[in-house]
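FAQ: What does a ligand-bound record look like?

Like this one, built around S-adenosyl-L-homocysteine:
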Amino acid sequence: MKTILFNLNDKELEQFITDLGQPRFRAKQIREWLNRGAPDFGVMKNIPEDLRNKLSEIAETLPVKIVKKLESSDNQTTKFLLELTDGEQIECVLMRTTYGNSVCVSSQAGCAMGCKFCASTLLGLKRNLTVNEMYAQVLTAQWELRGDRLRDIRPNGDANNGDVSHIVVMGTGEPLQNTENVIGFLERANGELNISWRRITVSTCGIVPGINELNKWGRPINLAISLHAPTDELRGQIMPINNRYKLNEVLDAAFAFSDTHNRQLMIEYILLGKYDKNGSVVIYNASAEHAEKLSNLLHNHNVMVNLIPWNCVDERDFASISGNAVHRFQDILIKNGIHTRIRRERGADIGSACGQLRLKNAKGNR
Ligand code: SAH
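The answer part, i.e. the structure of the complex:
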């Protein structure tokens, strides 16, 4: 098996390079390339060609390899399908926005949560990702933005300087089933890439002990809760985790987190419809009554409700609802004094929603 150079510490890398009969300073040069996210050895211009060829035979740069790269038609979103060393595949998305460059990172290969509207969980959980596997997703996006130009680290980062400025742990997987590695990854992203805590978001389906653990960790990141329904009954139907941790417990833990860190809590709410017998769409979780109930749950708390149009997953038995229905739902929240916005669909044309690309590829390979 090829050695992943990014996984070696400085001493090990030096040993690896000197074992090839090379001078020590080459290890330092290679480390700089690795830290920029170099996807292969071919790009390492200051390394002699015969060494680059040798390295390509026996080693890899990063613990993630690009299998596919898709660009949305507006060029604002790039989606990567990445392969890990054991052949598992994960997704990672780079979103260029007016406020900066955001990377959506996967925390697991697959997912065990079983949410009924989601593609990521359809093949079950394969395994947790390591700190390096999460960090390398950010480096892959960083390379896409900057290539071999050095990263421009400024104090208190100018979000639009062409670097990765924001991280959302909202890709495949449940981060709070892999809390220790997620924390290790974020510590490193903050320390080495200078990404401030306030530009980092962790999204969870509501694992209460994990939320408490984040609270104890003490970093002022943003927390997002995938709520998707305003009653235990409805939520239990679409999110099995609700049978373990009830709505009120989840919200109490989340409010405690946002109060401690003085952060606005993000609530994610996918607007779902279903098909009736005649094939027409009926509202599932987005009626006026649902909006009132949701308002009651969140009233008097510092929250932002992100309304998410459902990205169609063929295998899933839901339907998108009309723009009018989305606005009617939003208007009730606004009337009740709840901050809300409708999430712009990014990269829908490249299957950027939640595990769709990985799923398609896994099927194609069968
Ligand atoms: N497990 C974590 C993070 C990954 S999911 C969590 O549940 O928050 C990231 C977000 O995408 C969640 O809010 C999830 O519910 C949502 N999502 C999943 N499938 C979707 C789909 N088909 N369309 C729109 N959003 C979806």
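Follow-up question: can I read anything off the structure? Yes, for example: The chain has a mean pLDDT of 93.
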